[in-house]
Amino acid sequence: MEKRVSNSDIAAVFYEIADILDLKNDNVFKIRAYRRAAQLIEGFEKPLSEVEDLEALPGIGKELADKIRTLLRGQKLETLEKLRREVEPGLLQLMRIRGMGPKRVRTLNEKLGVKDLDSFRRALDSGEILELEGFGEKLVADLKKGLSEFQEYSKRTRLDVAKAQAEELASYLRGAKGVQNVEIAGSLRRRLETIGDIDILVTGKDPSAVMAKFVSYPKVREVLSKGDTKSSIVLESGIQADVRFFEEDSFGAGLQYFTGSKSHNIALRTLAKHQGLKISEYGVFRGEKRIAGRSEDEIYKLFGLSYIEPELREDRGEIQAAKDGKLPKLIDLKDVKGDLQAHSDWTDGRNSIEEMALRAKEMGYEYLALTDHSKSQHQAGGLDEKELKKEFAEIERLNQKLKGIKILKGIELDILKDGSLDLDEGILKEADLVLGSVHANFNLSKDEQTKRLSKALKTGLIHILSHPTCRLIGEREPIQIEWSELIPVLREKRIAVEINASPHRLDANGEL
Ligand SMILES: [Zn+2]
Fold it and tell me: Where are the domains of the chain?
């Protein structure tokens, strides 16, 4: 069977090439070209296999297009294979640790012979690393933290990455003989921020055909077990995937059980006990007799509960709320009326304001706020007062021209280290929307960080505090803030808090 090559497979190859070139101190333009192409491919809506003229894509020349075609044919890329042979795999892993760029990895490798996680740990613990130029106490403490974060996170996979792989596997399984239902369960169905492994449930006529198809998935690295109704594999990405076969009569019970969470299921089991019933992955039983199990709906109804959405199944009061008919209605894509954070090609975005506005209109949005970066974001081409004034004029022009979409004049304003604002009050007052953001000095103490934000928010010039904890899942810990001090300021100044839905951020999250 032919292996389907997705855009993210291709992007991953280009990212890896860029990383290795970077580690080898190769030509910066070459490195940048690979990274840009990877970003473009990652964000591209259509599968590249359906694009006829690859060279017409921005940033893709003849050479990159040839490489994409090779990958699309399912072949390996000699450029990457050769580069991989040239460096130790441990060095690439080290580059993914927070604070460890290619230059530092190179230095540690040359001076101390650091070549993998273990030797890096030893260099940190022995204090040897402190003798190197440029590696002070503070940096070493940060690197230690970075290493333990890395080891913690590497056991789990970010939601979007796991979701793409699970959906690809699920649609592959739908092709097995006699299959009826294929559903992804587990923490992925509950939309947790990171995922441990992939759980898939299947019903149909022929369990053995499902198991055979599953273990011959082209993207499998290792088959852990193959049984009559359950099998486990490790995918090429390193994520484990389990498939379970269920009869129609118990599919709802299985889906409920394997969706979890564990604590939600325990609460449900207690409820069953009180009613003299037993619940398992095969159904709800009175004595030996199964009285529910076909659908989750049926099971919740039996316990006198309204249907509980998977995202709410964490035993945080959802069972009582379902009993009282007080479950919240979850927000769906169709509820989204506009976007209040968007960057255009005036700074680090890829498209023009007009293109973005037209696309927003197409998506059914009523409004779109342009919130390009302010001037201290040099690397993103941040705007100063004069440039922002020009952008606002362009927005006004477009608002005259375009019908059916309102573009708001916004700015993502840097909150500087001392809590002052990156742009003058005058221009901020001309804006429809000011987002206040922290983009540097993430490591201030809790006291300093709280003072910094509090000072900025008290100016009354900021409407929304964006990505409030600044965390990047798997890459950067949240900044330290005393929220009990900051929330009253937010309330008094009527400042909203962004819920940034990028899978890298998910900030603020439900906990905050
Ligand atoms: Zn930002």
Answer: 7-153, 157-245, 250-323, 333-497
Ligand 1 centre to CA of 143 (Å) is 24
Chain segment 49-106, per-residue pLDDT in tens:
888 899 988 889 999 999 999 999 988 899 999 998 888 888 988 988 888 878 899 8
Distance between CA 423 and CA 377 in Å, rounded?
12
Distance 333 CA to ligand 1 centre (A): 22
Please give the helix or strand (H or E) that residue 290 lies within, else none: strand 289-292
Residues in the 5 Å CB sphere of ion ligand 1: 437
Q: Write down the mean pLDDT value for the chain.
A: 93
Q: Note whether 479 and 449 are within 8 A (CB).
A: yes
Taking the centre of ligand 1 as the mean of its atom positions, its distance from the CA of residue 413, in whole angstroms, is: 8
* Fold classified for 250-323: Beta Polymerase; domain 3 (3.30.210)
CA of 424 to the centre of ligand 1 (A): 19
Per DSSP, the three-state class of 352 is coil
Q: Please check the confidence at residue 475 and state whether its pLDDT lies above 80.
A: no
Query: Distance from the CA of 441 to the center of ligand 1, in angstroms?
Result: 13
The CATH number corresponding to 7-153 among 3.40.190.10, 1.10.150.110, 1.20.120.530, 3.40.630.10 equals 1.10.150.110
Q: What is the mean pLDDT of residues 157-175?
A: 96
Distance CA 315, CA 184 (A): 21
Rounded mean pLDDT of 376-401?
Answer: 94
- pLDDT > 90: percent of the chain: 76
Burial (Cβ within 10 Å: 0-12, 13-18, ≥19) of residue 388 = buried
